[in-house]
């Protein structure tokens, strides 16, 4: 049986989603919980993508194959009883045998959150990048529009990216205001290492007046990481949603 799950987690205490040699990842915690339920010591999960240390998820998706007879409707509650408070499975469903959380994904949405209040919110400080001076939100919206479409995102990828192609398609890029808080929502068919954080860092420069919005096309064309802005802090980033044809969790 192939089971897909949607999980939310606070990434503050973890070294990212994907298993690392030094441990302490969200994947490690999830696999340990599932193995304790099934007794399948070789069980591995497949995530829809990796998140860096300190990055959060509202709707990360993973799947795994199991011979367990636990009814699918009981999986979320059973697994949550074996997880720490900062990781919560929100949905579980049986999916076709060929469903693959990463390869089957059609769209992914990330949210980057900026707090422009004079003082940081002590209760939300792990989820927002604090920027205590005003930002030009109209200019930031204009900059975001230039990312929509199919582009080579070499200028907006880490120099450590190992992907053979840096061409990706951005379907939507919007700025949503919530008082002093700004959310950047970016939806695409896939993302490169640090891509959203570099986009966010660049758009913040535009908001500060240190870069023109119409500079974005030239930065994309340059295919040079040095042309774009800094990599924004990890804690402001959340993997918001992953969309599929075979699996549609309610978030």
TrEMBL record:
InterPro entries per record: PsdUridine_synth_cat_dom_sf, PsdUridine_synth_TruA, PsdUridine_synth_TruA_a/b_dom, PsdUridine_synth_TruA_C, TruA/RsuA/RluB/E/F_N
Pseudouridine synthase I TruA alpha/beta domain location: 7-102, 143-245
Reactions catalysed according to its record: uridine(38/39/40) in tRNA = pseudouridine(38/39/40) in tRNA
Active-site residues, Swiss-Prot/TrEMBL: 52
Keyword tRNA processing: yes
Enzyme Commission number: 5.4.99.12
Keyword vocabulary terms for this entry: Isomerase, tRNA processing
Binding-site residues, substrate: 110
Enzyme superclass (EC): isomerase
Coiled-coil segments on the chain, per record: none
Cited SUPFAM superfamilies: Pseudouridine synthase
Its biological purpose: Formation of pseudouridine at positions 38, 39 and 40 in the anticodon stem and loop of transfer RNAs.
Quaternary structure and interacting proteins, as annotated: Homodimer.
Assigned protein family: Belongs to the tRNA pseudouridine synthase TruA family.
Record-given protein name: tRNA pseudouridine synthase A
């Amino acid at each position: 049986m192939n089971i897909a799950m949607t999980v939310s987690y606070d990434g503050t205490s973890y070294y990212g989603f994907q298993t690392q040699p030094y441990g302490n990842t969200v994947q490690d915690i999830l696999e340990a919980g599932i193995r304790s339920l099934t007794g399948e010591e070789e069980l591995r999960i497949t995530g829809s993508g990796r998140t860096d240390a300190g990055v959060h998820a509202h709707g990360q998706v993973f799947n795994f194959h199991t011979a367990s007879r636990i009814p699918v409707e009981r999986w979320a509650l059973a697994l949550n009883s074996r997880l720490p408070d900062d990781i919560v499975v929100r949905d579980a469903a049986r999916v076709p045998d060929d469903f693959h959380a990463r390869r089957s994904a059609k769209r992914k949405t990330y949210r980057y959150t900026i707090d422009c209040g004079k003082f940081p919110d002590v209760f939300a400080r792990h989820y927002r990048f604090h920027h205590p001076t005003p930002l030009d939100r109209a200019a930031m919206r204009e900059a975001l529009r230039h990312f929509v479409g199919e582009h080579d995102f070499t200028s907006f990828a880490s120099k450590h990216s190992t992907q053979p192609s840096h061409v990706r398609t951005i379907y939507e890029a919007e700025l949503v205001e919530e008082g002093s808080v700004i959310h950047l929502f970016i939806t695409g068919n896939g993302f490169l290492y640090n891509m959203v954080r570099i986009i966010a860092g660049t758009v913040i420069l535009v908001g500060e007046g240190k870069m023109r919005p119409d500079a974005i096309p030239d930065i994309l064309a340059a295919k040079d990481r040095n042309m774009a802005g800094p990599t924004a802090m990890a804690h402001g980033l959340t993997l918001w949603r992953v969309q599929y044809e075979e699996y549609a969790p309610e978030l």
